[in-house]
Design a protein that fits this description.
This protein is an alpha+beta fold. The protein is built from 2 helices and 6 strands. The chain has a 6-stranded antiparallel sheet.
């Protein structure tokens, strides 16, 4: 039996844009607009980066991660499988819905498992910091679209 931990964290942020526009911020290249150092590399040319089966890699905060789009409903929901060797693996999903007044509610869920017992502490820290992590996303997206107060 393994001593590796599993977490599932979820939260909602509001994006002051209509749903289809807000959704683009949660696509592989859309995150470039607000995540410092985010630069997805696609090993194969893709016509639609949100198409299930699309593979991309990131080297963000010193960790190389391979991502695969596993499911998508255009403009509404996207799910990624992600693996960071020696660290963690799991599913990240973002579901966007109309929140009224031309704004969007984005539900972001990370369902992750540590790949080694040594990765448990970092996974616990991620879970503890998750509300702040989402708040930084909200603030960064608001800044990227030129909304000072949101």
């Amino acid at each position: 039996m393994s001593d590796c931990k599993h977490i599932r964290v979820s939260g909602t942020i509001h994006v002051p844009l209509p749903r289809v526009e807000a959704f683009t911020f949660f696509t592989p290249t859309g995150e470039r607009a607000y995540v410092d150092g985010w630069d997805p590399i696609f090993p194969s040319t893709v016509a639609d980066e949100t198409e299930p089966g699309t593979v991309f890699q990131t080297d963000h905060t010193g960790a190389q991660t391979t991502w695969i789009v596993v499911w998508r409903r255009r403009g509404e929901k996207i799910e990624y499988a992600r693996v960071t060797p020696g660290d963690r693996a799991g599913i990240v999903s973002v579901s966007c819905s109309d929140a009224g007044d031309g704004t969007t509610s984005a539900r972001v869920t990370y369902d992750l498992t540590a790949l080694t017992p040594d990765a448990n502490a970092a996974l616990d820290q991620f879970a503890d910091d998750y509300p702040d992590f989402l708040e930084r996303w909200r603030q960064s997206i608001a800044h990227a679209i030129g909304v000072e107060r949101s």
